[in-house]
Amino acid sequence: MNNVSSFKSDFSVQDFTSKHQVVFYNYWQKICGDRTMPSRADIHPEDIVEILPHIMIFEKKENDFIVRLMGTECAENLGEGTGNNLTSLEDGTETFKRFNWCFENRKPYFHIKPLDKLKKDHVTLSTIVMPLSDNDNDVRMVILICDFY
Predict the structure, then answer these.
(1) What pTM was estimated for this model as a whole?
(2) DSSP string for residues in 71-132
(3) Is 7 helix (H, G, I), strand (E, B) or coil?
(4) 18: left (phi > 0), else alpha (psi -120 to 50), else beta?
(5) Cα separation of 82 and 97, whole Å?
(6) How far is 16 from 14, CA to CA, in rounded Å?
């Protein structure tokens, strides 16, 4: 088991660890169109039903991020967190820094890490974190597609 965290801002679909990550990343790019990033309103759950269990959405509020949506697969592996502040969750500090990177750079990143802080060191989490914006300038939310393996 690799206990090292990996952050990639320059990635390709070959880096992804699951088919649903490829499907959702391609969907995100499609709904971007000519924009830098799509809005939350551009995402239609009926278009991505099979991957909804692997999705999480966080909204930035003041100096924290609030879990707005947590798919069932994410909740099973991380514990239900809908409505919670990121900083109140286990391992929230490092995630907070990475989310801020996404907000500041207005682009997605790919991240892999073991879930050892959740006492699940036998499980690795890979995540694509993608920005969402209502005006294509100011990031309001991030959407994640997760793979647990």
Answers:
(1) 0.91
(2) -HHHHHHH---TT-BGGGSTTHHHHHHHHHHHHHHTS-EEEEEEEGGGTEEEEEEEEEEEEE
(3) strand
(4) beta
(5) 20
(6) 6
Q: DSSP strand E in 3-73: where?
A: 6-8, 55-61, 64-70
CATH topology of domain 6-148: Beta-Lactamase (3.30.450)
Neighbours of 134 (CB within 10 A): 13
pLDDT per residue as tens digits for the range 55-112? 999 999 988 999 999 999 999 998 899 999 988 876 677 889 999 999 999 999 999 9
Instruction: Report the distance separating Cα 93 and Cα 86, nearest Å.
Output: 8
The label of the residue with tokens 């990475």 reads 98
Q: Which two tokens stand for residue 119?
A: 């006492």
Q: What are 82's two structure tokens?
A: 């809908």
